[in-house]
Design a protein that fits this description.
This protein has 397 residues and is mostly helical. It contains 16 helices and two strands. Helix content is 74%, strand content 2%. It has a two-stranded parallel ribbon.
Length: 397
């Protein structure tokens, strides 16, 4: 039996998937502990149901995902609006330093993925599908770049990247705390610990303005314009002969608009509203992506994927201890940033914040780390990660 759902029914099903995911997450402690996103929980439940139908030959789903690209572009446009040079400069040298560290880790993740995949006799694109795309990028970047990987020659890219991203969330949660405890106690970092102040922190815009109808209108208009301009940029990029996902064009367009607005008096970016619309777009986009997974496609890659993902976990742990901690000052704040880096370098910023909060409860506050990490992890690294991923795909496709 084929269950054929049109565009509207598919979208309604995505909403049901999200509601189920939210219901289950509220009642299962381990899912909250590891910061597993609601679309992933609901999507996996649906995917397991689909797998049962496939294996028993009782039923299959035929779904219409036409709106998926719309939500994806809206989300990446919202990311582009955060790429403010003015904001980055205000954050001070420590923000720039941590961003550089994060970029180095992204490059190392992709190099490890590519060369280890070759060593295992796999397509290098499999290595990329388990590297910074799902690790630093998370589920959103995984779903956005999967079609590009498939176009470059990697079959079942969506299933691979999303499975890797889910693994990364758990790995990021498990590694951050022990690494923080090790650094703090080995180097006796609590002795004479002092919270540092990030230069310019008091000047950073918080985006806490009261929501109103006109601001929401403006935010929607700004997102739609950036998506339209992004489609033009994407067409121009394709003429270079290189592979670029549509999300890159949307991010570039939004970043241009944002930086023009930062230095003008006539254009104001509605940051809070854009962030909210972007978050809504992301969870719907992820719901669509998870619903399209075919778990049975991972059978042949199960063992190689485990090897690749364990290697990425070890790499992130080593980078946190020997790169993040040392470059960021070898003090308590630096240890806290290493803890957080494990979270978003393997999973997502919420995982990073959960890691840091658990360390904070035991050892004390680290305000600098709590400012720098979400600023880099939520805003700037997504932009640079996408650019690096595009470069690697074009090299190894």
């Amino acid at each position: 039996m084929v269950i054929d759902l049109n565009l509207f029914l598919t979208t309604a099903l995505a909403v049901i998937v999200l509601l189920v995911g939210d219901y289950v997450k509220k009642r299962v402690e381990i899912l909250r502990k590891f910061c597993i996103p609601i679309p992933v929980i609901g999507g996996l439940i649906f995917t397991i149901l689909v797998s049962i139908g496939y294996s028993t030959q009782l039923f299959t789903f035929k779904l219409n995902f036409a709106l998926s690209d719309v939500f994806m572009l809206a989300f990446y446009s919202s990311i582009g609006f955060t790429a403010s040079y003015k904001l980055l400069k205000k954050g001070g040298p420590k923000v720039i330093k941590f961003l550089i560290v994060s970029i180095i880790v992204v490059i190392l993740q992709n190099l490890l993925g590519v060369y280890l995949a070759k060593l295992l006799g796999l397509n290098p694109l499999v290595g990329l599908a388990t590297a910074s795309i799902p690790m630093t990028g998370g589920h959103g970047t995984s779903a956005a770049f999967a079609p590009v990987l498939e176009e470059a020659g990697l079959q079942n890219a969506l299933t691979i990247t999303l499975a890797a991203a889910t693994f990364g969330l758990v790995a990021g949660s498990l590694t951050g705390g022990p690494i923080g405890k090790f650094l703090i106690e080995k180097y006796k970092l609590l002795t004479g610990k002092a919270a540092e102040k990030v230069e310019g922190i008091e000047d950073i815009e918080k985006g806490n303005e009261k929501l109103d109808e006109k601001r929401i209108y403006s935010a929607v208009y700004q997102l739609l314009v950036s998506m339209a301009l992004g489609s033009i940029i994407s067409m121009l990029l394709k003429k270079t002969g290189l592979t670029f996902p549509a999300s890159v064009g949307a991010m570039i367009a939004a970043a241009i608009i944002r930086n023009i607005a930062d230095y003008s008096t006539w254009l104001k970016i509605k940051e809070n509203e854009i962030r909210i619309i972007g978050d809504i777009s992301l969870i719907l986009f992820l719901a669509f992506s998870m619903m399209s997974l075919k778990l049975w496609q991972l059978t042949d890659l199960a063992v190689p994927m485990i090897i690749l993902l364990i290697a990425q976990t070890i790499l992130m742990g080593l980078c946190a201890v020997f790169l993040t901690y040392k470059v960021m000052g070898k003090n308590y704040e630096a240890a806290m940033m290493a803890v957080g880096h494990c979270g978003f370098g393997l999973g997502a910023v919420p995982t990073a914040m959960a890691n840091m909060q658990s360390i904070e409860e035991k050892y004390g506050p680290a305000p600098t780390a709590f400012f720098i990490l979400p600023l880099v992890g939520s805003l700037f690294i997504n932009f640079f990660n996408s650019a690096i991923i595009v470069a690697f795909i074009n090299i190894y496709k």
